[in-house]
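User: Please predict the structure of the protein below. I'd like the answer in structure-token form so I can feed it into my own downstream comparison script.

Assistant: Understood. Taking the following sequence of 220 residues as input:
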Amino acid sequence: MPDYEVEIVTHRVGDADYRIRALHDKQQFSDPDGSAERAGVSPASWPLFGVVWPAGLALAEEMSRRPVEGKSILEIGCGIGLTSLVLARRGANITACDYHPLAGEFLRQNAELNGFATIPFHIARWEGPNPELGQFDLIIGSDLLYERDHADLLAGFIQHHAKPAAQVLIADPGRGYVKPFSVLMAAQGYVRTEQLMPMAGSIGMPPSRGQMFSFLRGTG
């Protein structure tokens, strides 16, 4: 039995309900075999993968209606996988990745809870290439830029895993590191656009600051 508490919650996205196995709260830590420590997951950040954040809900809602046919899609920092589940329901070519050692198992169980086939998943760190992942037409993620070094790391990761013509979508609650990330993406040839996307409930952030950022290179 796991030494952390979980719950089953239901989220309505688009016109469908999704049953999600999530951590019961964000005040937990469990690393009996040291796998989280080896992956660079601190005790403070350990539970962050295991809940649905406001930016994650916003990204899931966006992907419930955005055209995805014919695109290979990678969700970065998938956590417990709500957006990947939304895309799986739509029949999209979705691959999920995260560096948390429990993310893959939570994603597998959540796919099972909703009657979906197993979604391809990779443990992937942002430091350096992950050759088993390959390259994608569309890379998506939510609330990824929450520490100072994330702009450099995420831009480097995308450089390895985006096709020459690609789009990157980032749902961000306004944490303040989008500007340096945008500079790095521009150096890779991306053009940025954005739209307001209020995210009520983001910790410490006014709802009006939520935005969806799109970075487009080539035809996307």
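That's the full token string. The first helix runs from residue 35 to 39.
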